[in-house]
Amino acid sequence: MHRIIQLSDLHFGTVNAHVLNALVHTLRQLSPSLCIVSGDITQRARRSEFLAANAWLKTLPAPVLCIPGNHDIPLFALWTRFLHPYGRYRRYLHKEVEPLLETDRAIVIGVNTTTPFRHKRGIVSDAQIRRVEQLALDNAAGKGVIVVAHHPFHVLDEADEDQLVENHEAAIRAWSAAGVDLILGGHIHVPYVYPLTRRYPDLPNPTLVVQGGTTTSYRVRRHIPNSLNVLDLYPEKKIHITTWTYQSKDSGHADRFTCAEKDMWKTV
Ligand SMILES: [Fe+2]
Ligand SMILES: [Fe+2]
Predict the structure, then answer these.
(1) Which of 23, 69, 135, 254 is found 20 to 30 A from 98 (Cα to Cα)?
(2) Among all ligands shown, which has an atom nearest to the Cα of 70?
């Protein structure tokens, strides 16, 4: 088994300190091989927020692969937003906005769906679609192929449809045909796993959308608690995904993340 943890929408600047503390303990307990952060690492792309995020990410018990979210581009500083949208991100977090990482059992491909020309909605270009397609086709070792984006490629709620990444269907069809197994996303702060063959029955492979909720921000949506996803990869592309949600002291427990049976998804 090979364990990858998906954190998302950390939003340093609006972090709940109790949740962050519980997360540190949970991550130690889960002992991952890799931590992925699917964007919105800061709240307003401030220098202080990037510095705090960077310092915290360095304490994690595994390598980290992150990509930017729309909140990681300065919003009001227009000069910076349009001329150097990822300047702070590159300086304080990672020089690459589309990182690529290979582990024993997976190829993890970062895709930057943000653009300074849009406040919230994301886009995936034809060139980005081709890049992922080629990397997946080159996967001679038959490893799991995981795409990490910020904006969702499928939503469950009609109210979220305007948050779907533009060009999502073209990407899904090309990537599924090339052997992409999982498309990770964040942005809408709602965690779920969705088999894309339900929406597109003619897809050649059973590609899954795996959405992360906000892991640490107090700005949760629809009272959905903070969460993280645990992806356990087994041979022959078998996978077991669990969503762990934060339980506060107010619920009668010690502050911690726990996993309920209903939050499991598996092909193992
Ligand atoms: Fe977010
Ligand atoms: Fe976002």
Answers:
(1) 23
(2) 2
